[in-house]
Design a protein that fits this description.
- The chain is an all-alpha fold and about 70 residues long.
- It has one domain (about 5-65).
- The protein has helices at about 5-25, 30-65.
- Helix 1 runs antiparallel to helix 2.
Length: about 70
């Protein structure tokens, strides 16, 4: 797990906490900010997963084609 993926997960958790606190206190701005943070966190996590997958595919290709040079 890389740092970007971890940051996305943490942002989602913080967003859930903000959303819950906003619902509890009736603060719709905090609730909305929490939802926004969750969406941004999901996007960061998905982006990091895509980057990890691309790096894995490149490593696999290089491993299977050792004699091939870029």
């Amino acid at each position: 797990m890389n740092g970007e993926r971890f940051a996305g997960i943490c942002l989602q958790l913080a967003g859930r906490a903000n959303q819950a606190w906003g619902e509890l206190t009736g603060d719709w701005l905090r609730e909305t900010a929490g939802r926004r943070d969750q969406i941004i966190g999901k996007a960061k996590q998905a982006s990091a997963l895509a980057q990890e997958d691309a790096a894995r595919q490149l490593r696999d290709f290089q491993h299977h084609h050792r004699n091939w040079h870029f």
